[in-house]
Amino acid sequence: MRLSIRHKLFLTLLAATTLVVAVMYAFMHWSFQHGFVSFLESRQQARAERMAEQLAEIYASEGGWDGVLNDRMRWLRLMADGRPMHGPGMGMGPGRGMGPGPRGLDGGLALLDADKRVLAGHVHDAADLNLSPIRVDGRVVGYVARPPGRALSELVDVRFAEAQRRAFFWIALLVGLVAVALSWPLANTLVRPLRRVTEATRELAAGRFQARVPARSGDELGDLARDFNELAQALERTESARRQWMADISHELRTPISLLKAELEAMQDGVRPLEPAAVASLQADVERLNRLVEDLYQLSMTDLGAMSYRKRPVDPVALLRDDVESLAGEFERRGLAIEMRADPALAVTLHADPDRLSQLFRNLMQNSLRYTDAGGRLVIAAGLANGRFRLDFDDSAPAVPDDALAKLFERFYRVEASRNRSSGGAGLGLAICRNIVEAHGGRIEARPSPLGGLGIHIELPVAP
After folding, report:
1. What dihedral angle (degrees, nearest 10) is formed by the CA atoms of 47, 53, 59, 65?
2. How far apart are CA 354 and CA 312, in angstroms?
3. Sign of the dihedral through C-alpha 61, 65, 71, 72
């Protein structure tokens, strides 16, 4: 049979409480037994001492023990310590060395002479007796003897002990029943937050990411509820981003496709003649669409971590210099200047994928190539600081508003004043750059350029 955590918790509480009650009952029983016997022992000792004082007065006044030994009733009155004498078998009978009186009336006490010979009462072993001396004028004339560790014998003591045992039993039983009555609701109270988390988890599994769990306590269950809420919030953001991502992709693909469709329909209807200029326009639209699809593929690969990185020792300065030389012609045709600033003696080695680093450098340079006004320039500075390779890409106007700098690395984000689809940008290049930098353990950020445009700052860890 499958036991729920509520039943397991209930059984655990019940078992723990039962064990505690059993130990408490055993301890109370043991404590009572030892305490009650000690009490009886001290009471018997007090009786023996009182009897020794009475016998000392008798001996001092009568000069011996004959008055006690020849009067059995007098001896029994001394043994009873003033208790009333009733019952059969209590007749008087003279004689020395008389045996014990009726059961329980001698109190287990005996009279011994100065040489520890038994005069009255009954003892089993004179060597193990507790002796209370009887002194007259500083001289020991006898002893009142009692056996050590006397068991419960008097009826009232036995009844009292039995009543206490029954009381202990009923108290333990009552505590056990109270534990049973409290364990089940307590188990329900402790398990209730877990049931809330379970129900909310099913809500998440069904796609309802707005599910939340109230976190009212400061214990581990409260921490679990707060962690669950953070997870649900993260999933909700991810789902929202996924839907936005799909909407952005659909929007970005719809525009070039609509342009192609419109131009092709115009050629079919004879509105636009089929000539080399029209074919070139179609070719440009196809190229833009192809770049968009390629950017989407690259971005999806970096998001999933599926982009292959073949890392090895790389000289990033030499790699950057080669990329600058490759795109220098494009910058010149656009009327832009490009400049690389690096110490000739700079020697840096990165553990990186050279192809991905080259893709990073070219994406940033093409970003400046697309959006920098004619007559502007791009300055690339490379250096080493605090064990990290630093790169700064600074271009000239137009600038990016300060409130838009933090959004530049979001996919499909454009600054309307400087970016448009006709220039070929889909808003994915910087998102790909961020993924490449983070895959190499570095960081990238956007900031205002001292040249009046956009500045991109990159830091990459140097290989040991």
Report:
1. 10
2. 8
3. positive
